[in-house]
Input
Amino acid sequence: MRKTVRPRFFSLLSGMSQKQEAQFEQVYRYIRQQEHRMATVSQVHEATDVSVNLIYQWIREGRLKPSIFQNLGYPCRSCGKMIQSGVLCEDCLKKLEHDIDQDEDERNAALKANRAKTYHTRGESRHN
Output
């Protein structure tokens, strides 16, 4: 039974990747045209009928380069603002870094307060 399922599965995957490759070529041909080089993802989607998520995927993978096609981008995973690299926009990245620093400061303050309350006996060293 497995012998019949596997070829069908791989045939299905191959068919899907061929379809996606054809869609990529369609998108790439569209945005390479001089009059469409400044197109946004939604404009490319409208013109080619290729899924917005698939276009985002190609940008994330580096197959479509925002350095060449400047209005292409994908949403920040936190706030949805359009970005051209990474996972988070600058604002969300700064907020995350601030939150991490603040959490670290709070933990250090709690550790320091806890150390001040620690009771030591004569046989114990204070630097354990």
